[in-house]
Amino acid sequence: MVLQLFHSRPFVLAGHRALIQDSSDQKPETSATSVGCMGIGPRNARTEGTVTSQLPEDLLHKRNSDILQVVRPLVKHWRKDGIKITVYLDDGLALAEEEQVCAQQAIRVKHDLILSGFVPNKDKCIWRPVQNLVWLGFIWDLKLCLFQLLPEKVANLVDLAGVILEQPHKVKIRLLAKFCGKIISFTPVIGNVTQIMTRCIFSVINSRDEWDQFVDLNFYSGSIREILFWRQNIVSLKPVAILREISDFKVFTDASDGAAAGFVANSDYIMHKQWLKHEAIKSSTWRELKAIELSIDSFKHLLSNSLVSFFTDNQNAVGIIQKGSKVPELQTLALSIFSICVSCNISLHPEWIPREDNEKADALSRIVDIDDWGISFEFFNFIDRLWGLHTVDRFANMNNAKLGRFNSLFWNPGTSAIDAFTCNWKGDNNWLVPPVNLVSKCINHLINCTAVGTLIVPKWPSSAFWPLLFKENLEYAWFVRDVLEFHEIDRILVAGNNKNSMFANGTFNGLLLAVRLDASQMN
Question: For the region Disordered, what residue ranges are annotated (predicted)?
Fold first, then answer.
């Protein structure tokens, strides 16, 4: 019902503010008792002809409690009659789907308030239907279905950040607390970034001995970065929708002991990464967060300017993405995820799902890349100086790529394309270290693309690819320009994460060939 209400762009009867009238001659027509306190809003009161700026805290609490007792029966009565209304102390907001209905309900609510002993504030009440107003300190834009910050609040925060950064060597803890308090109050409008990007400042505040002590922020670089972030980005942060919209994409991720994986639902986009040694021993929460970071980074060209639901079976990961973490390495991942989302204008909504609903991501995370081995940078640099400069690594992943441009089997951060055989290799100097079972396909694809490149293969005369490179008496094929033979295998081969590969476990005792190919001038 609420969803229908907001999607129809309702008209709103702005917050009514009222005085509570103390009159022995006029009985309120509710079950509550009228309160002997007059004033505008909860912070002013008139006592024996004298206006005070603020009630004592105990009286203020009693007054607010009394207001609720008076208002609750009214709210119940209105809602029972189908009026969509909410009240916060003496501030109220009512919604309707049609302008005429909203106007009629405004008359009804105003009439009931007066009969109940309230005196509506003529200067602050809005009894005409509107679709944009300020209520409870925020701009309610029902045309765009967004909360927005008041410009003066944004300006105050920027000014306060400037005051702090003007003398960072001498900042009062109380001033930092004021700065953080303003930011946290923005949570309904800009979301959980208010918690993620105040972690360092709060750690400084929590280490205080007293509120009026001074602190040198030059020793807390993280806090300065957060303050700079708010000063530079508060104006451009994307506001939160009043109601959550339908996601453009759904991404599922998981992390096993061996790898991270993620996929975009209803697409062919799959991310997979084998853990390195130091990653595999991390906590399960770290691995789950890393899987989410890798997925966002891998798919960001697809997810840009979109609303994305991320599903994981780790509840801790969801909480850390939303609020950050006290653990430095987990907070670093949370900040990285946030930074990617901000730079690509991605609205991220992490959600927990049971493990049985995440079976595909779990299965993908258990894939073992049997061809996860590579070539040393020392050897690559030698060949690159000889036959370079190479421009793209066609068979690689983010762990073993030798060039900034690389193709991989699955999406990885930095991947320019998946499945090298779907690309046109012409115009590039291709670095080719394919799995042995793909060498023949690699050679044929290079010929079909009339391309050039360097191929690294074992010297196996009995293999299927051998006749493609050499004719009788080891005569070169027409596209083979040169062949170099290497025997220092321990300096050339680099182990990946599949320790059972013969190219990684030291059992390969043969020779390696570097073959220079040029099919740019086909016979």
Answer: 22-48
Distance CA 432, CA 213 (A): 62
Closest by CA position to 267, among listed 293, 313, 298, 244:
298
Which amino acid, one-letter code, is at 344?
C
- Cβ density class 138-163: b for 16+ within 10 Å, e for less: bbbebeeebbbbeeebbeebeebbee
pLDDT tens-place string over residues 376-417: 999 999 999 999 899 999 999 998 999 999 999 999 999 999
Paired with 470 in beta bridges are 476
Closest of 184, 176, 137 to residue 160, by C-alpha: 176
Predicted TM-score (pTM) of the model is: 0.76
Q: What is the pLDDT of residues 142-154, one digit of tens each?
A: 888 888 999 999 9
At residue 24, does pLDDT exceed 60?
no
Task: Give the mean model confidence (pLDDT) for residues 314-337.
Answer: 93
Q: Is 217 exposed, middle or buried (0-12, 13-18, 19+ CB in 10 A)?
A: buried
- How high is the mean pLDDT of the chain? 85
Q: What is the CATH T-level fold of the domain 373-518, as seen in this structure?
A: Rossmann fold (3.40.50)
249-366 CATH fold:
Nucleotidyltransferase; domain 5 (3.30.420)
For residue 442, CA distances in Å to 74, 333, 372, 516 come to: 77, 37, 17, 13
For the chain, give me the number of helices (H) and strands (E)? Answer: 18, 27
